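Researcher: I'd like a candidate sequence for this fold, 342 residues long. If you have to choose between options at a position, lean toward the conservative one.
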């Protein structure tokens, strides 16, 4: 198996929209419409699926959600699939997807983060298909800060294309925009300064390897199963090691610490040349901060740990391609992540 990059999107291509986890409530449908129009403005035809209901915690039954996702991922006329956002229980789709069929189908870009990590990361590990851990559809209308890219930029990039992203310098400290009241909002509220932070010590960092990772709260439930065998992926696709990235959505520091310990014991970080950690607004505990939770669980690995990167739930967003070859550089004068679709 080698990494399979879906064909770059061209004007006229079709983009599928489905909610493998949570759908969109009626009061947020106008935000969805704004996001769809933005994708259409890139020259793409948007196909919105049936599994979009937002009245419950999932958009439809597991069987229906799995069937629609499979249909879109194996439809040769659909070149990318993006959800409105994440959710809570996409894990119920895992045993219902036809992984053998996905392994031989023409690769299609699957985009998303948060609960979508439950699907994107196994898709890369089991089929070799590159996936995008990046801003979801509802986030797409926001203007991308200098130094960062949108998922729309990445799915249109040519094979072999290298692209570099750098810290935005500012992020949102608290709260969310009210999409029901202001569905057309396009400017991030970036009210706090911040840069990347080395957690494990001092000194410059340069490390390389194929990128793999996702959301801690969802991936920890797959750790130790055949769906999250990172070591096997490293042996075949990146024998010199990986760049492993993780990010906390909202769990407190004790929970994140336990989850990371479990993922480490299951081998998730065994082949890491460096660990990249997304910035989080998840709560600290009285005896343990989020940074300390990461060090408690992963400090013994003796690899560089770079935190406060824009690959988490705190806006703005830095898309990362699972399967791409990455190079991380971090020093007092320079911080950047370069990814190559090769």
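Model: Candidate sequence:
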């Amino acid at each position: 198996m080698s990494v399979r990059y879906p064909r770059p999107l061209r004007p006229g291509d079709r983009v599928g929209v489905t909610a493998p986890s949570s759908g969109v409530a009626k009061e947020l449908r106008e935000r969805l419409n704004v996001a769809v129009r933005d994708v259409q403005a890139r020259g793409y035809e948007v196909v919105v699926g049936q599994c979009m209901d937002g009245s419950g915690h999932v958009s439809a039954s597991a069987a229906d959600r799995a069937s629609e996702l499979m249909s879109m991922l194996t439809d040769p006329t659909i070149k990318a699939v993006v959800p409105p956002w994440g959710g809570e229980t996409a894990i119920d789709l895992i045993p219902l997807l036809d992984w053998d069929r996905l392994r031989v189908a023409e690769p299609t870009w699957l985009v998303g983060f948060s609960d979508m990590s439950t699907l994107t990361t196994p898709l890369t590990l089991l089929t070799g298909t590159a996936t995008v851990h990046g801003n979801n559809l509802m986030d797409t209308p926001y203007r991308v800060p200098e130094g960062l890219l949108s998922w729309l930029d990445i799915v249109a990039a040519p094979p072999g294309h290298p692209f570099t992203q750098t810290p935005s310098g500012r992020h949102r400290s608290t709260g969310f925009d009210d999409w029901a009241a202001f569905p057309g909002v396009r400017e991030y509220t970036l009210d706090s300064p911040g840069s990347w932070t080395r957690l494990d010590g001092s000194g410059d960092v340069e490390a390389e390897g194929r990128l793999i990772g996702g959301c801690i709260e969802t991936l920890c439930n797959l750790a130790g199963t055949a769906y999250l065998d990172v070591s096997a992926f490293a042996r075949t696709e990146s024998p010199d090691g990986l760049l492993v990235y993780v990010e906390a959505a909202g769990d407190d520091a004790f929970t994140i610490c336990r989850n990371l310990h479990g993922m480490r014991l299951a081998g998730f970080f065994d082949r890491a040349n460096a660990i990249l950690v997304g910035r989080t607004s998840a709560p600290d505990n009285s005896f343990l901060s989020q940074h300390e939770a990461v060090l408690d669980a992963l400090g013994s690995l003796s690899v560089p740990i770079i935190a406060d990167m824009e690959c988490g739930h705190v806006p703005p967003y830095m898309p990362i391609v699972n399967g791409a070859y990455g190079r991380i550089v971090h020093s007092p004068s320079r911080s950047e992540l370069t990814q190559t679709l090769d």
